[in-house]
């Protein structure tokens, strides 16, 4: 029986094949355009990310040369330290200024540490403790974790006065100058909210395992500790003070952190590993 259907002619088959090929080309061209667009978008995002990183580093570094002189925070002194007279108060100082050019030069040969303006408290007065610390120092973080609460208790009892000289030795290994930014933040808190200093300091060192912080994070941590110092942190208000402290420490032959002095004598952790007992003995001896 003959079929009613009729096979397409050669011309019709050729036209159909051309139409299909054209559809394939159009689809491929559309896919290529989408791929090209995605690549361009990806490149743009990558470029913007790099720009954001660079801008962030500039901001975090508080770009620009640090001034050679500047104000000292409340509780600060001419040696570059901040002195706590209790767990909520700092020394009564105001109106002081420092000049980095007057900090002195580091010795060319190794010498015994000789911190300026550090001496034993007279009999009957609170024992003097002096700490050289760097907020980016793992050993400082360990020391603070172990002894921060004890130091706070001694301060609350009136048994000691504590001076922190926060240096920035480890800026050399930080892409954001975290040591000096952290030291500036501590100075900001001392100046604006002395009662929050110990709380903020403890939180700052406890954060060490999590890595460096942005200025906004430092400001939030300070706020959580009771100090609203975001502008001071962003402005780098006490960077000249930090720079002076750092240079003075080098000039006084402080080779590393933490370095601790009890009544004007350097504590040797190898010879006397129990820091708390050594301080307790000094307290009893000075009664």
UniProtKB/TrEMBL annotation:
Signal peptide interval: none
Occurrences of domain Thioredoxin-like fold (ranges): 126-274
Stretches the record annotates as Disordered: 1-20, 102-121
Cross-referenced Pfam families: Thioredoxin_4
Biased composition (Basic and acidic residues): 109-121
Transmembrane segments annotated in the record for this chain: 37-59
Superkingdom of origin organism: Bacteria
Keywords: Membrane, Transmembrane, Transmembrane helix
Name assigned to this protein: Thioredoxin-like fold domain-containing protein
Lineage, uppermost ranks: Bacteria, Bacillati, Actinomycetota, Actinomycetes, Micrococcales
